[in-house]
Amino acid sequence: MLDLPHLDQVDQDIIKLLHDNGRMSFAKIGETLNLSRVAIQKRVENLIEQDVIENFTVRLNVTKLGKVVSAFFEVEVEPRYVEEVGNLLADDANVISIYQMTGSSSLHMHALLKDDASLEDFLYQNIYKLKGVVRVNTQVVIKRFKQGTGLEL
C-alpha cells in the first residue's frame, strides 16, 4: 500500500491501479473505486498537472526488437566536461538512462545494443572519442532478476 501523505487515498488507489495497468480505462478505474469516469479523469488530470504522473508508457521486450546486449557503463570524465559528455551521451538512441553520480566526476549509463560488434562500436565511436572521457568501465548484463519502471507500489 502506498503511503503518500500529500495525496488522499483515492489518488493513491488510482496511481496503484495505473501503475499495475497503464491502459486501464477511467471507466474501469471508476468502477473499481466506486467513482464516476469523469471523477477519475479529473483526478488523473490533476495528478498530471501536479507532475505526480509524468507520462504513460509501454514496456517493450527489447530482445524481440533486436537489442540483445544490455550494458552498464561507468564513464569517468574530467570535471569540466561532465555536462557536455552527459548531454552528448543522453542524445544517443542506444542510451536508456544516464546519471551523474556522487564522488568522482563519473556518469553511470545503461545502453541497449544489437550485438557484441555494436557494443564495441558504441565504446569506440560514441564514448572513447568524446573529449574529457578519462576511463570507461563496462559491465554486460548476463541475467536480469528484476526490471523496474520507477517506484514499486
UniProtKB/TrEMBL annotation:
One of its GO terms (cellular component) is cytosol. SMART domains: HTH_ASNC. One of its GO terms (molecular function) is sequence-specific DNA binding. InterPro entries: AsnC-type_HTH_dom, Dimeric_a/b-barrel, Tscrpt_reg_AsnC-like, Tscrpt_reg_AsnC/Lrp_C, WH-like_DNA-bd_sf, WH_DNA-bd_sf. It holds the Pfam family AsnC_trans_reg. It comes from the Bacteria. GO terms for biological process: response to amino acid. Residues 7-68 form the HTH asnC-type domain. This is AsnC family transcriptional regulator. The lineage of its organism: Bacteria, Bacillati, Bacillota, Bacilli, Bacillales.
